[in-house]
Specification:
With 253 residues, the chain is mainly alpha-helical. The protein contains eleven helices and three strands. A three-stranded antiparallel sheet has the order 1-3-2. About 8% of the residues have low confidence.
């Protein structure tokens, strides 16, 4: 008689749902860098008990997206609540150093194969810029770079590059608040795609290195400036509130 296996539930685990919802909110900037968060407020907003929120926050803390709040009101060594981890300019620069090396390898391999990229990738990105839809811009950026990784036909590139995607995503979400940074990204993407399709390996690699360098420099400078500029009382007050910040994709009990 064959062994009986436990039937798996088709619905995602509630902790995973909460984790994804909070990570999306942090990545998109709905929960802002430095913003104080508590289990109680998040559980109320997500309409779940505190238990899955607590477990999701532990995972987010381990992954570096939340940290202990700097002001402790409880007993010695214990803090009430957490805060969204501030974006560190040096960390973003280091992430982009790694991503830039992987992207350069990807375009080199893709150009050697003269792999054409779907024109819809560029059209989608430019349409998102035109609408001013920051989330769609970030999603389109990921889709473009993922297409390059797959065109390289080396699955380790995509796996490695996506390890820190959420850190990059939250940095982009903040940076793309500036309209000046939006259109040039897609001009650079289009030039890279054309070089890859022509099989111009050296040009494709050089353009990608410039693209990664521009992104790293702009993001690093932007967050370094923010770190030196104190926020106003009104801004601090807005950041202290988490009302209507996050929702689950579907109702959860």
């Amino acid at each position: 008689m064959p062994a009986q296996l436990i039937k798996l539930e088709s619905a995602p685990d509630l902790v995973e749902q909460v984790y994804r919802a909070l990570l999306d909110a942090i990545s998109a900037g709905t929960l802002k860098p430095g913003q104080r968060i508590t289990q109680e407020e998040l559980a109320e907003q997500l309409a779940v008990s505190r238990q899955p929120v607590m477990q999701a926050l532990r995972l987010l803390k381990k992954d570096g997206f939340v940290q202990d709040a700097p002001v402790c009101n409880g007993p010695a060594g214990r803090c009430r609540g957490l805060q969204v981890t501030p974006i560190d300019a040096q960390w973003i620069e280091q992430v982009y150093e790694v991503r830039g090396a992987l992207d350069a390898l990807a375009v080199r391999l893709a150009a050697q194969r003269r792999t054409p990229l779907d024109a819809a990738l560029l059209a989608t990105g430019r349409a998102a810029v035109k609408r001013g839809d920051i989330k769609a811009m970030i999603d389109a950026d990921l889709a473009f770079h993922t297409a390059l990784y797959r065109a390289a036909q080396n699955p380790l590139i995509e796996q490695s590059a996506l390890l820190h995607w959420h850190h990059i995503r939250r940095a982009m979400g903040a940076a793309l608040q500036s309209a000046m940074l939006r259109e040039p990204v897609w001009d650079e993407h289009e030039a890279i795609a054309r070089a890859v399709e022509r099989g111009d390996v050296k040009l494709a690699e050089r353009l990608m290195q410039q693209h990664s360098g521009h992104a790293s420099t702009q993001l690093g400078a932007q967050f370094a400036d923010r770190a030196r500029t104190p926020s106003s009382p009104a801004t601090r007050k807005r950041r202290s509130s988490t009302h209507n910040a996050v929702v689950l994709d579907s109702p959860a009990a």
